[in-house]
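Structure first, sequence second, as always.
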């Protein structure tokens, strides 16, 4: 508790006084220590325990809703990565495609080419998108997201490519595949830090009766 006294007579009667002179007169600040007597049990219940019993569930519910909102927002952002990949591919823009990759990304193509770093990723995809894939599209079919940590998630998504040309310039049949992306939330949004792309192949009889998260369509013979 802080007591202010501006009357010099009252100040002189206070033992242990501390006086401060200024142009406005004498100001004394006294710190008074208060002793707190124990509260009766019924007052503890009324003033402390009962309000806590009311507010605790409210706070828990608020925190749960906040976490859920953050998770939903992050999942939407992660799900948008394959769509952004597809949009940049449709524009045949290697630079834009590289924009969703982390600076130190590790990306393995369907042909087993391991691209390290965003610069190599951009250079490689700028080349193929101006050559055999210059008229192609890469469309996401199904997307599955799994969070490893609040700021890290794995994305599996199936795709279909159409409009590809062979080395001889002849049109190639459409093909299906699955890409796996490990993503991380950064100060610039969600970025791909590791990715593995895989071509679909002939159907596997051993998996026909399994409940697969994503099942690729059967390619036309």
């Amino acid at each position: 508790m802080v007591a202010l006294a501006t009357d010099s007579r009252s100040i002189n009667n206070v033992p242990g006084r501390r006086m401060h002179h200024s142009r406005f007169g004498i100001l004394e600040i006294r710190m008074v220590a208060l002793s707190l007597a124990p509260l009766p049990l019924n007052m503890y219940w009324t003033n402390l325990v009962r309000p806590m019993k009311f507010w605790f569930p409210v706070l828990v519910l608020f925190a749960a809703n906040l976490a859920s909102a953050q998770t939903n927002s992050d999942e939407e952002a992660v799900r948008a990565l394959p769509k952004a990949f597809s949009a940049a591919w449709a524009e045949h823009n290697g630079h834009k495609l590289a924009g969703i990759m982390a600076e130190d990304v590790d990306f393995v193509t369907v042909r087993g080419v391991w691209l390290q770093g965003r610069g190599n990723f951009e250079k490689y995809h700028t080349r193929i998108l101006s050559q055999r894939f210059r008229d192609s599209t890469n469309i996401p079919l199904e997307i599955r997201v799994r969070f490893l940590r609040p700021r890290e998630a794995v994305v599996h998504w199936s795709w279909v490519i159409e409009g590809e040309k062979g080395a001889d310039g002849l049109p190639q049949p459409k093909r299906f595949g699955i890409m796996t992306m490990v993503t991380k939330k950064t100060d610039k949004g969600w970025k791909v830090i590791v990715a593995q792309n895989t071509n679909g192949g002939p159907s596997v009889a051993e998996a026909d009766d399994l409940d697969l998260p994503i099942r690729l369509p059967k390619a036309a013979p």
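Margin note: The first strand starts at residue 2 and ends at 5.
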